[in-house]
TrEMBL record:
<feature type="binding site">
    <location>
        <position position="220"/>
    </location>
    <ligand>
        <name>substrate</name>
    </ligand>
</feature>
<keyword id="KW-0521">NADP</keyword>
<comment type="function">
    <text>Catalyzes the oxidation of glucose 6-phosphate to 6-phosphogluconolactone.</text>
</comment>
<comment type="similarity">
    <text>Belongs to the glucose-6-phosphate dehydrogenase family.</text>
</comment>
<dbReference type="InterPro" id="IPR022675">
    <property type="entry name" value="G6P_DH_C"/>
</dbReference>
<keyword id="KW-0313">Glucose metabolism</keyword>
<feature type="binding site">
    <location>
        <position position="239"/>
    </location>
    <ligand>
        <name>substrate</name>
    </ligand>
</feature>
<feature type="domain" description="Glucose-6-phosphate dehydrogenase NAD-binding">
    <location>
        <begin position="12"/>
        <end position="190"/>
    </location>
</feature>
<feature type="binding site">
    <location>
        <position position="332"/>
    </location>
    <ligand>
        <name>substrate</name>
    </ligand>
</feature>
<dbReference type="GO" id="GO:0006006">
    <property type="term" value="P:glucose metabolic process"/>
</dbReference>
<dbReference type="GO" id="GO:0050661">
    <property type="term" value="F:NADP binding"/>
</dbReference>
<feature type="domain" description="Glucose-6-phosphate dehydrogenase C-terminal">
    <location>
        <begin position="194"/>
        <end position="466"/>
    </location>
</feature>
<feature type="binding site">
    <location>
        <position position="182"/>
    </location>
    <ligand>
        <name>substrate</name>
    </ligand>
</feature>
<dbReference type="InterPro" id="IPR019796">
    <property type="entry name" value="G6P_DH_AS"/>
</dbReference>
<feature type="binding site">
    <location>
        <position position="152"/>
    </location>
    <ligand>
        <name>NADP(+)</name>
    </ligand>
</feature>
<comment type="pathway">
    <text>Carbohydrate degradation; pentose phosphate pathway; D-ribulose 5-phosphate from D-glucose 6-phosphate (oxidative stage): step 1/3.</text>
</comment>
<feature type="active site" description="Proton acceptor">
    <location>
        <position position="244"/>
    </location>
</feature>
């Protein structure tokens, strides 16, 4: 990654007081700064309704960086001085303090000798806020020349998505719009292309002839108490399934793009496979859960039926995958944090058919820099040879030249570079919401209870049959009790 662009950049962060801004976006911007990937003239303008002053926002930025694994940058003073705050919120009816703060920032940058800055509006707010902010950018004359980053979920249902999409298209051109799904920016999710297309060993097996089942398993130990309002309005399925898990599934399932160097070819391959996702069958293929104690959280109604866990079996009707279940699972307050794709191979044919103690597997852990493993049946060395399962792994962070970058830093860099390869499209999202729609209708199952620290409701076990969930200790073919990934901050 390099940048030669000296044009100043102003990142306006809507929702600057929120969880995403604190945990991911602000650290990512500063990560780019530390890596020398931002122009000399850059500014961060936090925007929210809280009546904070600049000092309070800078203290928030400092706390956000300090709690992040990278810590405070060595030139914290210089970073701090680049942060501004625009309070009183921002809507089409009232732009709050933002226009005035932007004018000051532009003046400051001009005084430093910079050219007119590129302004990036980052909407780290709930989807309900996207239309008013988008209209506001239009009405207050802030849209021309700007880039606008929308968080997921981009809409809350198929109908809501269509309405939002129409509003956005009315006010912005497609090259101005960046619809984030940050799982597409994760290093190991990006590395699926290399694994498949640069290795005959894997690429030749990547279809229904060799693969019996695909598991995409993203348990989280994380709580939701500090973002109860957002979470209660959203739930696990909308927060994670129709968004991140569907996008990871599309990365695994896409047919080979015609040209990996052409962003349009990659985006087209992702769009194409997503349009073949079969609408979910809630009764047969979905289990929802809610962890015990969820309704005791401040701001959550005592009768909430919101899901904090979802497991779903997705069918992808392409020649490559017809008949292969993609089983997807995620939830809050589960046993541990992990992010793993497991390709479960079909049993071998020939003289040892039926002898292997379990299926062989290809595993891609995509938390952090990533880890690739294979689970293979081997013969135990010794006088009494038996077949047993072993595992060999490769930490991507350890390969020569590795310099892992966080998903948000990578995606923010792409926004500045105007590169849409890792961003999702209206086409993709329309397909995702279409496949997801049955789960938002009358057939939505009620969430089943599960104890915090567990693997979710036991009913979810049936979705992977005849295999177990491979990540669980009982399903781990090698007998490991924890995944070979960084457990992360719970
Ligand atoms: N948290 C996470 O780990 C991740 C979150 N996301 C996405 O980021 C977005 C924000 O999530 P998160 O930060 O967790 O949520 P939070 O509830 O923590 O924060 C959202 C912020 O948005 C502002 N906000 C809330 N409602 C409105 C509204 N109606 N109009 C304008 N601003 C509003 C609030 O600030 P104020 O009201 O003061 O302006 C609040 O600080 C969501 O779309 C989520 O899906 C994506 C990836 C990861
Ligand atoms: O979008 C979201 O993602 C996070 C998980 O992201 P990660 O990069 O930390 O793995 C999830 O916790 C959150 O609920 C959701 O909104």
């Amino acid at each position: 990654m390099t940048t030669e662009n000296a044009r100043p950049v102003v990142v306006v962060l809507f929702g600057a007081t929120g969880d995403l801004a604190r945990r991911m976006v602000m650290p990512a911007l500063v990560e780019l700064h530390e890596r020398g990937l931002l122009p000399a003239g850059w500014r961060l303008v936090g925007c929210a309704t809280d009546p904070w002053d600049e000092q309070a926002f800078r203290a928030r930025l400092e706390a956000s960086l300090a709690e992040h694994e990278r810590g405070l940058p060595s030139d914290w003073d210089s970073v701090r001085d680049r942060a501004r705050y625009a309070g009183r919120g921002f809507t089409d009816a009232d732009p709050g303090e933002l226009p005035e703060v932007l004018t000051q920032v532009r003046r400051e940058l001009a005084d430093e000798g910079g050219s007119d800055p590129l302004v990036v509006y980052f909407l780290a707010v709930p989807p309900a806020a996207y239309p008013a902010i988008t209209r506001g950018l239009g009405r207050h004359g802030l849209a021309p020349g700007a880039r606008v980053v929308y968080e997921k979920p981009y809409g809350t249902s198929l109908a809501d998505f269509e309405e939002l999409d129409a509003t956005v298209r009315q006010l912005l051109t497609e090259d101005q719009v960046f619809r984030i799904d940050h799982f597409l920016g994760k290093q190991a999710v990006q590395s699926i292309y290399a694994l498949r297309f640069a290795n005959r060993l894997f690429g030749s097996q990547w279809d229904a002839r060799s693969i019996e089942q695909v598991q995409i398993d993203v348990p989280e130990a994380l709580d939701v108490a500090d973002r109860a309002a957002f979470y209660e309005a959203t739930g696990a399925a909308l927060d994670m399934l129709v968004t991140h898990l569907f996008h990871v599934a599309s990365q695994v399932a896409m047919d080979p793009p015609t040209d990996l160097r052409d962003p349009r070819a990659i985006v087209a391959a992702r769009d194409a496979v997503m349009s073949r996702f079969r609408p979910l069958d809630p009764a047969r293929d979905v289990v929802l859960g809610q962890f015990d104690g969820y309704t005791d959280i401040d701001g959550v109604p005592s009768n909430s039926a919101q899901d904090t866990f979802v497991a779903a079996r997705l069918w992808i009707d392409t020649d490559r995958w017809r008949g292969v279940p993609f089983v997807l699972r995620t939830g809050k307050r589960m046993a541990l944090k992990a992010q793993r794709i497991t390709l479960v191979m079909r049993p071998p044919e020939g003289p040892l058919a039926g002898e292997a103690p379990g299926p062989d597997t290809i595993e891609i852990d995509f938390n952090g820099p990533g880890h690739i493993s294979v689970g293979v049946t081997v013969q135990t060395p010794g006088p009494d040879p038996e077949l047993t399962l072993g595992r060999a792994g490769l930490a991507l962070g350890d390969v020569p030249g590795s310099e892992p970058i966080s998903a948000y830093a990578s995606l923010l860099f792409d926004v500045l570079a105007g590169d849409h390869t890792l961003f999702t499209t209206s086409h993709c999202l329309r397909s995702a919401f279409t496949a997801f729609a049955p789960l938002q209708g009358p057939d939505r199952p009620l969430p089943l209870p599960y104890p915090p620290g567990s693997w979710g409701p036991p009913e979810a076990q049936r979705l992977t049959a005849p295999h177990p969930w491979m990540l669980e200790p009982s399903g781990d073919a090698t007998g490991l009790t924890a995944p070979t990934v960084n457990p992360g901050r719970a």
